[in-house]
Design a protein that fits this description.
The chain contains 29 helices and 17 strands. By secondary structure, it is an alpha+beta fold. The chain is globular. The two termini are about 30 Å apart.
């Protein structure tokens, strides 16, 4: 796994500042501690930081094809590169290394922009073709690897694996996008293709950018999730998962797996154990607070498969990482599980360079509780006229007492509110970090004015419409795969792992497995109220039954108690200080009220307060960039 950065002059008239390119590249040293390289040509510069995984001696980047001068800087893994290498060799191409980077060069020479359609893996790359004076940027189907870019007013383009590479450039405008701010408080992250800065975009998953000098840049989709009804069951799933795991075992460095004690990571470890001769190295972290600890379940799986298991107990009050999250993520990021994710990545890196994870199992096989409720509520909506639903359930949703402390089945107010809405608006409510009323009350007046009629549901709308012909469950999964998965889950894991020099591979996000699994009938994915039913049946021969069918626990931290206890004063000082108050993005009086109600024990505002703390951390980080510019 690696990181890259670059500068492209769309006019071809200016030289690239080599020192600036070096600084942009060095900002990504954590992504590639094993080596670095620069390529500078007329009006083009590519920088690369390398974490060596394959062909340790011969895979240095940027890599240039001696015949054509085509140069590439690449981050990721292409798992089918041996087969592609064989195909290309049959077409007359000659290879000087045995790494996937060179396959990109020859794939471009053979197939042009369509080469990405043949790549099976996780990747983002920048390619320069001097013959066509063309810059080509591409990102994998699901957005496992990040890619940011900015087209500047002078006709040049900056690009890089993380925002921190772009913010090294003194000409980059760091004007905060009001829509991105509301999106953050609505979803807990800034969804693609936006970034927190107006000038910077994220290349969306499954997209490519083609910029030929003299022409305008063109961004286009090269893949989207096909929605085609599939059939299959537990036996086929087990075989497909095994194949996906096997494809991800190629490495020239030590390899292991996360083992949280949940269904997905346990399934991956079980398949790994059957494919490797040596014991699988597994890693888990636990907490003294039993409400947040799953190490006992992880230990069951480790003992069953004789893994080389390492676990570490983390003090649930060890919150020193909070201050570093802003620099780690570069923009506001509100998923508190980023902290334990960072810790398990740090633990794994002590022994391995590559780790397999269970990420994606919930999105592919419908493991989130919101899917079950969405499916049930959609059925009710289809049986009752819209006017009746809005009148009856809308009234009940307004008068029923709020019970955000209660389990979902007891939170009737939320259910009534969702039943009164159409499917899209109800799904938005179910995934919202803060509901509309709470969010708008929190945002500052200036920000509300700048937003005009914008509403964050628009992030979901195009994906919802693209899946309009699917059943309600598949439509919800499709929306999550296009938004929540790349914007939250994959960002969280990429930044946490790369900060520790660790590569993470996710077999459930193998696109062959994903395209098949998402398109299974709803009754196969959720059966009798059991989420991920087909996956659990498939894993019954491999994973203890009490683990498979226990309630989903999640990977989280006790931030509510923190904010009333050890973080009480620190939180108040951060949220009532001048930085947040003077930003104009939030209402200081509302922030004070949330603090008072939460810290008195009257209400649980931990979600809103965490988002505010992360946003304040970003503002502090952004200010530090200005000071160092």
């Amino acid at each position: 796994m690696c990181g890259f950065a670059g500068i492209f002059d769309g006019t071809g008239e200016r030289d690239v500042d080599r020192g600036l390119l070096q600084r942009m590249t060095d900002a990504l040293v954590h992504r590639g501690p094993d080596g670095s390289g620069l390529f500078v040509g007329p009006g083009i510069g590519l920088g690369h930081r390398r974490l060596s995984i394959l062909d340790l001696a011969g895979g240095a980047q940027p890599m240039t094809d001696a015949e054509t001068g085509v140069t590439v800087a690449f981050n990721g893994e292409i798992y089918n590169f041996p087969a592609l290498m064989e195909t290309l060799a049959g077409l007359g191409h000659r290879f000087r290394t045995h790494c996937d980077t060179e396959v990109i060069l020859h794939g471009w020479k053979q197939w042009g922009p369509a080469c990405v359609e043949r790549f099976d893996g996780m990747f983002a790359f920048a390619l320069w073709d001097p013959r066509e004076a063309t810059l080509f940027l591409a990102r994998d189907r699901l957005g496992k690897k990040p890619l940011h870019y900015a087209a500047l007013a002078d006709g040049s383009c900056l690009f890089g694996s993380e925002l921190k590479a772009l913010t090294c450039h003194p000409a980059l405008p760091r004007v905060i996008d009001p829509e991105a701010v509301e999106d953050f408080f609505a979803y807990g992250y800034v969804p693609e293709p936006k970034s927190i800065y107006r000038a910077v975009r994220k290349l969306a998953p499954g997209h490519r950018l083609i910029w030929r000098r003299g022409d305008s840049p063109r961004v286009e989709a090269w893949w989207t999730l096909p929605l085609e009804a599939r059939t299959g069951g537990a036996a086929e799933l087990a075989g497909r998962l095994r194949e996906a795991v096997e494809r991800r075992l190629i490495a020239d460095v030590p390899l292991g797996a996360f083992l949280s004690g949940g269904v997905d990571s346990s399934a991956v470890v079980a398949q790994m154990a059957g494919l490797t001769s040596a014991p699988v190295k597994t890693f888990a972290i636990g907490f003294g607070d039993k409400a947040y600890d799953e190490t006992g379940y992880a230990r069951q799986v480790a003992q069953r498969y004789g893994t080389d298991h390492t676990e570490r107990m983390v003090d649930p009050d060890a919150f020193d990482l909070i201050d570093g999250l802003a620099a780690l993520y570069d923009e506001p990021f509100g998923d508190s599980s980023a902290m334990p994710t960072f810790q398990v990545c740090a633990l794994a890196r002590e022994k391995v360079t590559v780790a397999l994870s269970g990420d994606g199992g919930d999105e592919v096989f419908a493991g989130y509780r919101r899917y079950l409720w969405h499916l049930r509520e959609a059925s009710v909506r289809r049986r009752l006229p819209r006017a009746l639903r809005r009148g009856l359930f809308g009234t009940l949703g307004r008068i029923y007492p709020k019970a955000d402390w209660a389990p979902r089945p007891l939170r009737a107010r939320t259910t009534f509110q969702e039943l009164a809405l159409d499917d899209l608006d109800a799904f938005f409510l179910s995934v919202s970090a803060l509901p509309d009323g709470e969010r708008r009350a929190l945002l500052g007046g200036d920000l509300r004015g700048a937003l005009a009629a914008y509403h964050p549901v628009e992030v979901l709308r195009p994906h919802w419409q693209a899946a309009a012909g699917a059943d309600p469950l598949t439509q919800a999964q499709y929306a999550d795969i296009k938004t929540w998965l790349p914007g939250d889950i994959l960002v969280k894991v990429d930044r946490a792992s790369m900060a520790n020099g660790l590569e993470v591979r996710a077999p459930f996000l193998d696109h062959h497995l994903l395209e098949w699994g998402v398109n299974l009938p709803p009754e196969v994915k959720i059966a009798g109220g059991e989420k991920k039913a087909v996956l659990k049946r498939a894993m019954e021969p491999f994973v203890p039954r009490d683990l498979l069918y226990r309630p989903k626990q999640g990977f989280s931290m006790p931030i509510g108690p923190w904010f009333r206890g050890p973080l009480r004063q620190r939180l108040r000082e951060a949220l009532t200080g001048p930085l947040l108050a003077q930003s104009g993005f939030v209402d200081p009086a509302r922030v004070e009220r949330l603090l008072d109600e939460h810290q008195s024990g009257g209400r649980d505002h931990s979600r809103a307060l965490w988002l505010l703390l992360m946003f304040q951390g970003f503002l502090r980080h952004d200010a530090s960039l200005g000071a160092s510019a």
